[in-house]
Design a protein that fits this description.
With 458 residues, this protein is α+β, with helices and mostly antiparallel strands. Among the domains are: 99 residues; 71 residues, no CATH class. The chain is 45% helix and 19% strand. Strands 1, 2, 5, 6, 13, 14 and 15 form a seven-stranded mixed beta sheet that branches. A seven-stranded mixed beta sheet has the order 7-16-12-8-11-10-9. Strands 3-4 form a two-stranded antiparallel ribbon. Helix 2 runs antiparallel to helix 3. It is globular. The N and C termini lie far apart (53 Å).
């Protein structure tokens, strides 16, 4: 929903104060973002002036000031990167407010049918009953789904033993054979959304959702050859790309957030939202780090886990500077080690501590190679390409793989298994209730030519 549409709908709302409050928060968010962006630009100009004036100056006070400015710029750039995500959350809240205060119509019925159908697919997948010929629509029951959807918060608040026989029967339809009950689509979407917003790689990599235990795909090992031919001169036989089978298995990622029974009994708490946020927060870092450094054993395989090379199964590592440092020439070498077709959509990934060093580097014309986002909500730029901070990327040190660049949609594939389940455990950690939440995910490099790693010299 657009903001202007929401403002126009206030008059038609049964509870306009709810909508007005959300609008107020959206405006405050925008005002804060503008102030943050203005300070970011001011700090960056001050940093450039200080760096230019302090050349060959070893004054500790100047060094300390530069360090503080650098940290402030990084923090504000991250806040600017997060602006669009936060604004989206506020607009989602607006939509929710309008749905609560409006009247149900045909659109609501259609949306409920979509939810019921999607959840039936997830349920059949979890129970390994989904096949390519399954007639999903004949199995979908909106009433059955609605009953489950309404009972799920009850299950989270109370032990399943307290459910009536009819309630228990309604819940049992969507039990996960591995334990617990499948979360509702809204809760699942909230968990995945948090993971998407927090991890830069998940935002830009290719993502597949499957109903099996692994994604199997054919990957080209080389490019096809081409040639020329004339009207009377036959062209030579060209080579064909070799197809290799790539298998990306999914692995179990779990979280065990806890809550007191008193919290769960508080009627003002939306338990599904609380649990989704807790689970998402606990899974964010672990999932993100596996995409970068994971070994592929019981977790996804990260792009830094491959050896150095230019053949399939290796990722080329390019020297980015002198001993334990990064240089402009080194970063230029990394950038242009990518072939043009991947360079057009390439993005940089590096640790925020690495950025603090890059921020003070200049090119041959004396221009800084790192620049903050030019508008609110846009990423910083390094050598003309978008730059994103990743907490998992190694910091600058001798022999470290401190920066990566790639066309991530081509280079890396993330695989999500349908279904997230929660098992309520009120016994193991009394007096707390523990929610054992499971999600299955995989990931691996699928195009080794679309990715390059910058390596710091020894």
């Amino acid at each position: 929903m657009r903001l202007k549409d929401a403002e126009g709908a206030i008059k038609d709302s049964n509870h306009p104060e709810v909508v007005k409050e959300v609008l107020k928060k959206i405006k405050a968010l925008g005002d804060d973002s503008k102030a943050n962006f203005t300070t970011l630009q001011t700090d960056y100009e001050e940093l450039k002036t200080l760096v230019n004036e302090s050349k060959n100056n070893l004054d500790p006070l100047i060094k300390e000031t530069v360090s503080k400015l650098t940290e402030d710029i990084l923090t504000r750039q991250q806040a600017s990167d997060d602006f669009t995500k936060s604004a989206t959350d506020r607009m989602d809240a607006m939509d929710a407010a309008m749905q609560r205060t409006g009247k149900a119509g045909a659109g609501d019925v259609d949306e409920l049918m979509k939810e019921a159908r999607a959840f039936k697919i997830t349920s059949l997948s979890a129970q390994q009953k989904l096949t390519p010929i399954t007639d999903i629509d004949s199995l979908v029951s909106v009433d059955q789904y609605t009953a489950y959807k309404n009972l799920y918060p009850v299950y989270l608040r109370r032990d399943e033993k307290s459910l009536s026989p009819d309630e228990f029967k309604a819940m049992s339809v969507n039990v996960d054979p591995a334990g617990g009950y499948l979360v509702t689509p809204q809760m699942s979407s909230r968990i995945v959304k948090r993971l998407f917003e927090a991890d830069p790689l998940r935002q830009f990599a290719s993502t597949e959702t499957i109903s099996t235990d692994a994604l199997e795909m054919m990957v080209e090992d080389d490019e096809a050859d081409v040639g020329w031919e004339g009207e009377t001169v036959a062209g030579r036989e060209t080579g064909t790309p070799r197809l290799d089978k790539k298998r990306i298995p999914v692995h179990t990622l779990y979280a065990k957030p806890r809550a007191t029974q008193q919290l769960l009994e508080d009627a003002s708490i939306n338990v599904e939202t609380w649990l989704a946020d807790k689970v998402g927060a606990k899974m964010i870092r672990e999932e993100g780090s596996s995409f970068v450094t994971g070994t592929g054993i019981l977790k996804p395989r990260g792009f830094l886990s491959y050896g150095n090379g230019t053949i399939t199964g290796t990722v080329e590592q390019v020297n980015i500077g002198a001993a334990a440092a990064i240089t402009t020439d080194g970063l230029v070498s990394v950038k242009f080690s990518l072939i043009e077709q991947y360079l057009m959509r390439a993005r940089w990934f590096a640790n925020r501590l690495t950025v603090s060093e890059i921020m003070q580097l200049k090119d041959g014309d004396g221009q800084y190679i790192w620049r903050p986002g030019l508008t609110e909500g846009t990423p910083a730029m390094l050598l003309g390409l978008p730059f994103h901070m990743s907490t998992t990327m190694p910091v600058v040190a001798a022999n470290s793989l401190s920066i990566a660049i790639g066309d991530w949609a081509e280079a890396y594939t993330i695989v999500d298994r349908l279904g997230i389940s929660v098992q309520r455990d009120p016994y193991t950690v009394k007096p707390f209730v523990e929610f054992y939440t499971r999600k299955r995910v995989g990931g691996d490099v699928v195009n080794f030519r679309a990715l390059k790693i910058g390596k710091v010299a020894v």
